[in-house]
Amino acid sequence: MTRKQAGLRPVEPVAGNGILSRRLFLERALVAGTAVSMGTGIREASAEPLAVQPWMRTPGSGFAGYGQPSSFEGKVARFIPPSPNPATQGVGPARTPLHLLDGIITPSGLHFERSHSGIPDIDPDQHQLVIHGLVQRPLVFTVDALHRYPMESRIAFIECAGNSQALNAPKPLPLGMAAIHGLVSCAEWTGVRLSTLLDEAGVDRSARWVIAEGGDSASMSRSIPLAKALDDTLVCLYQNGERVRPSNGYPIRLLVPGYEGNLNVKWLRRLELTAAPAMSKDETSRYTILLNDEKAWQFVFPMEVKSLVTRPAPGLKLQGAGFYEISGLAWSGHGSIRKVEVSADGGKSWAPAVLQNPVLSKAPVRFRAPWQWDGGPAVLQSRATDDKGNVQPTRAAFAAERGLRGIFHYNAIASWGINENGEAANVYA
Amino acid sequence: MSTLKSLAVVAALLFSLPVLAQTPRFGQPISPADIAPWNISIRPDGAGLPPGRGTATQGESVYAAKCQACHGEKGAGKPNDALVGGIGTLGPGKVPVRTVGSYWPYATTLFDYVRRAMPFQAPKSLTADEVYAVSAYILSLNDIIGPDDILDAQSLPKVRMPNRDGFIPFPRNPK
Fold first, then answer.
1. Which positions in chain A touch B43 (Cβ < 8 Å)?
2. Min CA distance, B4 vs chain A (Å)?
3. B113 vs A221: CA distance, rounded Å
4. Which residue of A16, A134, A271, B18 has the lowest C-beta tally within 10 Å?
5. A-chain residues within 8 Å CB-CB of B120?
6. Which string of DSSP letters, residue by residue, matches B97-124?
7. How far apart are CA A263 and CA A253, in angstroms?
8. Residue A212's beta-bridge partner residues?
9. What pLDDT, on the 0 to 100 scale, is given for residue A42?
10. Chain A neighbours among B 63-102 (CB < 8 Å)?
């Protein structure tokens, strides 16, 4: 083929190491243009004759009451690190395999979970939610009663405050996508505005906080500012159209949009209005950020602007030089994503990625950028900016502000190093 | 005005009259006494602490029986969290060891957490005296109180934890 063939034209990179213009996607000129310019990515040899497969000759199976993924997709599963103590099963996380998914919605069975005392098996007919403390009328709600209120749905991310904490380590650890970054997921959540229930109870003027407590055996509890509880917090009954999964809080959980995952209390059983926070274990000994000096930030609510390249990623080996799409997720607990840039040279040069609709507040956006891999070493990064002007920091800038002893709320730019074999690994750049 | 016309006017008036607001109200009133079995939060000022008392000496046997298998001898940790030590490790350049003794700002949180969540296999099974006693034992191992100091609803909130002033607000919370 030559460059002069009809419809084909050269495409030059817009950033180092082969990042191409996102306009390739917008103009739908992609494959033809890149193939000619860079000379690879299209197989020249003819394909084999088409085969008539067994499933084309035999009728398929019958229907299932509740459908399951293809039997060929068994590897798409959450990553569950071994518990340090076999006697305390159900303490710790199950991590979403973000590199094996696309779009923005996490299938409910793959939504990450972080539990403190296992997953309770709650009978919804026995479950109750009580609202008390600084209210005019203490009230108790059955799950059936909650179903009678007007509901609303929103697509929202939930990110554990401990997500990506492996990147605090002084040297890059040989871990993959789920093990490092798998504590963020997204669902369409449907439920009752917490403000509706609080209005019914009649909030006392002196109330400033809401202590939310779960019905799990650890009775996990957190204090939420009353202003947030009255703003956009939801008491959720549905997750991606079906009832909330047990591992995500069945029969009811809180959604506190944009705020750290631990506040989105699962198996919600009690809301107590108070003048001051409870200072519970999970807002003092955990989920506080020890800084470079002796002080620690406490009540760190928003998950700040962040993005990840989910493909390429460790475990997804590139099959030779040529065209690849760099794809990933970006989100901000402060609002919506305005811009994502990608780099293939470790942040020396950047080019804007396409943001795929929908772009929603406090929800992940899927970004995509075309990349022509030349077969040599590369370092892939993404950098998000939100609509409040917050820019995802470099690891160095992140560490300069708070040090690397804080564990929680790691949101610095992450890097995948690509070697000559096309393998991706966690690196610092 | 024709009858038809006046009927129409009357109908329009009827439909434009406000309906008495049918705000959904499906919560059932409940008395504080009936909430009490679930009302377990303990505040830093001691609000919520139950009657009862205990000392570290009494708590040592509770700890050995109910806690040591996960938290190690004398709270040293392994396989689960260490509860003792690390005081003085939070400063610049150090590897922080975060335990009840070195990091937790309030002793009331220790009582609250043990009562609601521990022991792992049977949370909420300890008596109030046992929770006071085992809390005293952990505080004593950290040299925050003495082995025979009595912990109860009056004395527990007065215990001053080493890292009481270690926390500051996050500067970028939404207003």
1. 274, 276, 278-279
2. 39
3. 10
4. B18
5. 87-88, 91, 117
6. ---TTTT-SBHHHHHHHHHHH-STTSTT
7. 10
8. A222, A271
9. 55
10. 69-70, 79-80, 90-92, 95-96, 98, 100
Which A residues in the span 350-379 are in contact with B, Cβ-Cβ below 8 Å? none
The answer to whether the beta carbons of residues A113 and A200 sit under 8 Å apart is no
Q: What value does the mean pLDDT take over residues B13-17?
A: 61
- The closest alpha carbon to A342, from A2, A18, A9, A5, belongs to A18
Q: Which of A196, A237, A280 is the mutation pick for testing B, counting most B CBs within 10 A?
A: A280
Question: Dihedrals φ, ψ of A178, to 5°?
Answer: -65, -40
Is B170 an 8 Å CB contact of chain A?
A: yes
Q: Would an 8 Å CB–CB cutoff place A126 in contact with chain B?
A: no
Token pair listed for B74: 């004398």
CB atoms under 10 Å from CB of A205, counted, come to: 6
Helix pair angle (B128-141, B56-66), 10° resolution: 100
Contact assignment for A288 to B167 by CB distance below 8 Å: yes
Q: Look at A197 and B27 and tell me if their CB atoms are within 8 Å.
A: yes
The Cα–Cα gap between A188 and A182 comes to 18
Q: What domains, with CATH codes, occur in chain B?
A: 52-166 (1.10.760.10)
Q: Vertex A393, ends A258 and A297: CA angle to 5°? A: 60
Phi, then psi, of A262 in degrees rounded to 5 = -60, -25
- Cα separations (Å) of A350 from A26, A139, A287? 18, 55, 33
Are A152 and A234 spatial neighbours (Cβ–Cβ below 8 Å)?
yes
Rounded Cα distance between A380 and A427, Å, is 10
- Closest-CA residue in chain B for A118? B120
Phi/psi of residue A24, nearest 5 degrees: -55, -40
Which burial class, exposed, middle or buried, applies to A53 when counting CB atoms under 10 A from its CB (0-12, 13-18, 19+)? Answer: exposed
Distance between A24 CA and the closest CA of chain B, angstroms: 38
ipTM of the complex: 0.91
pLDDT the model gives residue A36: 40
Measure in Å the smallest separation between the Cα of A292 and chain B Cα atoms.
5
Query: Class assignment of domain A128-287?
Result: alpha beta
For A237, A300, A390, B39, the CA distances from B169, given in Å and listed in that order, are: 33, 8, 19, 28
B37 touches chain A (CB under 8 A): no
Per-residue pLDDT reduced to its tens digit, A153-182: 999 999 999 999 999 999 999 999 999 999
Determine whether domain A1-41+295-429 maps to CATH 3.30.300.30: no
- Whether pTM > 0.80 for this model: the answer is yes
Task: Give Cα A358 distance to the centre of its chain.
Answer: 15
More confident of the two residues A257 and A90? A257
